[in-house]
Amino acid sequence: MEPISKSNKSNKSNKSKKMEIATEPDIYMPSMDEHGNYVDKITSFTKGLRCPCGTRRDKVYKTTSLFSTHIKCDSHKKWIIDMNHNKSNYYAEAIKTKETVRELQLIIGDLNNKLANRDMTIEYLTNQLHGKIVVPTTTNLLD
After folding, report:
1. Domain range holding 40?
2. Model pLDDT for residues 114-125, shown as the tens digit of each residue
């Protein structure tokens, strides 16, 4: 058995790193208090946490202590205040989005039906072209 050199060790560790499954961090959503206001409440997370408040959108917080520090910054606090002022707008937007999704689901269903009908027509015409389907010829019974 040959001894493991430093270069062999690094190759093995690189291979194991490549085998890890890439996971996306969770997106932070503030909680609601008993009055219906958005409030910061940190829950546990394992894959990291990304805050959509806008101060550092691309930043992934790996620990609760780092995220706890983030939510104390003025920009994040302002975002929470803006969320509370625009609650009715967010609700109206959510309703519109639900309606749009429902309409799109109906359109997709209709298009799927049309596509299935066209597929059957193509299959029928292809079989007819290749002589697999015999089209009955009508004869005039009065002759």
Report:
1. 16-85
2. 999 999 999 999
